């Protein structure tokens, strides 16, 4: 009997350990397909499709990975989906032409950049309601990204040469940081001291100091840089170059590019696995996601997804 009990305990432990070590899933919104492709990062295969409105664009997840937040430009709304089942849990009107979406690390807030109203919709995640529509100076905002501590939102706009700063508690813009023309993707260092902004027309990544609210460096990138991803240790930053079909790896300790990796056509937004070992890149014109070995600085494969993939979130 003791041997049977021991075997049961060992099997339970193996099951629990296996679950804890299971590879996360990558979720990819496909704007023209109206779907989200779900990629098992253990096998790098697209294992299913989730219906996601008419024109899904931005995507984010709650801290536990149980909920997906997807902007639907066709419905001018934020969709809340159950990540496991794909079931639609809520549709939240946010305004005309929503783009990027981001969730605070504590899971309390969700922010949506709304192009046509030049504003950011701040959403109470628990109540699933918009609590504020915060005007910004930049026209056609594309991304609104929370600082790691949740105090600030940085907002990029397609028709701007600045990144707008929103005080989340005060629910208003409190400043702006000058950058290059047409800022797009934004990423924070893990400690929140620095932010990295891809400026498409300027062809550069700007490094922002959040304490002084100024740009402290400009790193030359490729043609039409768009997406940003920052490694979990803060030592590496990745930028996608839309016109070049490439991703550059930046050594953040020296602010220099140390690798350039060819991917698909029009690489856009990206996401890293939690350990930072792999980068998944949405290729808008190739209908694919490229997988990059971040340490080697090389592409390991491409995964077919839907039409016009906009970005990636991994949970």
Residues in helix, %:
under 10%
CATH fold-level assignment = Methylamine Dehydrogenase, Chain H
CATH superfamily, called what? YVTN repeat-like/Quinoprotein amine dehydrogenase
Total beta strand runs: 28
Question: What's the end-to-end separation, in Å?
Answer: 41 Å
Structural commentary:
The protein is 6% helix and 55% strand. By secondary structure, it is mainly β. The chain has one domain (24-314): Methylamine Dehydrogenase, Chain H, CATH 2.130.10.10. The model is unreliable at 1-21 (pLDDT under 50).
What can be said about this structure in brief?
The chain has 315 residues and is mainly beta.
List the main descriptive attributes of the protein structure presented here.
315 residues; mainly beta; Methylamine Dehydrogenase, Chain H; four-stranded antiparallel sheet; disordered N terminus
Topology:
Elements: H1 2-20, E1 25-30, E2 35-40, E3 45-51, E4 56-61, E5 67-72, E6 77-82, E7 88-93, E8 98-103, E9 109-114, E10 119-124, E11 129-135, E12 139-146, E13 152-159, E14 162-167, E15 172-178, E16 183-188, E17 194-199, E18 204-209, E19 214-220, E20 225-230, E21 236-241, E22 246-251, E23 256-262, E24 267-272, E25 278-283, E26 288-293, E27 298-304, E28 313-314
Antiparallel strand pairs: 1-2, 1-28, 2-3, 4-5, 5-6, 6-7, 8-9, 9-10, 10-11, 12-13, 13-14, 14-15, 16-17, 17-18, 18-19, 20-21, 21-22, 22-23, 24-25, 25-26, 26-27
């Amino acid at each position: 009997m003791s041997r049977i009990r021991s075997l049961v305990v060992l099997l339970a432990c193996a099951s629990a350990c296996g679950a804890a070590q299971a590879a996360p899933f990558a979720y990819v919104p496909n704007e023209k397909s109206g779907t989200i492709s779900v990629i098992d990062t253990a096998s790098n295969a697209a294992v299913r499709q989730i219906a996601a409105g008419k024109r899904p664009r931005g995507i984010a997840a709650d801290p536990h990975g149980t909920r997906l937040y997807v902007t639907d430009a066709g419905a001018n709304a934020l969709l809340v989906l159950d990540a496991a089942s794909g079931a639609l849990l809520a549709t939240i009107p946010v305004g005309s032409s929503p783009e990027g979406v981001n969730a605070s690390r504590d899971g309390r807030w969700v922010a949506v950049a709304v192009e046509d109203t030049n504003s950011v919709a701040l959403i109470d995640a628990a109540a699933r309601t918009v609590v504020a529509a915060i005007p910004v100076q930049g026209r056609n905002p594309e991304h609104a990204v929370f600082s790691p501590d949740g105090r600030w939102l940085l907002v990029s706009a397609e028709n701007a040469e600045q990144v707008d700063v929103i005080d989340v508690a005060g629910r208003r813009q409190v400043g702006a940081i000058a950058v290059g023309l047409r800022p797009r993707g934004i990423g924070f260092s893990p400690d929140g001291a620095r932010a990295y902004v891809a400026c498409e027309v300027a062809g550069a990544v700007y490094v922002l100091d959040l304490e002084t609210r100024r740009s402290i460096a400009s790193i030359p990138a490729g043609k039409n840089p768009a997406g940003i991803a920052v490694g979990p240790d803060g030592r590496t930053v990745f930028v996608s170059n839309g016109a070049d079909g490439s991703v550059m790896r930046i050594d953040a300790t020296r602010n220099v590019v140390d690798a350039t990796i060819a991917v698909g056509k029009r690489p856009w937004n990206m996401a890293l696995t939690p350990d930072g070992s792999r980068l998944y890149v949405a290729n808008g014109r190739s209908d694919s996601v490229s997988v990059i070995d971040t340490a080697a600085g090389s592409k390991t494969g491409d995964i077919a997804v839907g039409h016009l993939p906009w970005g990636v979130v991994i949970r």
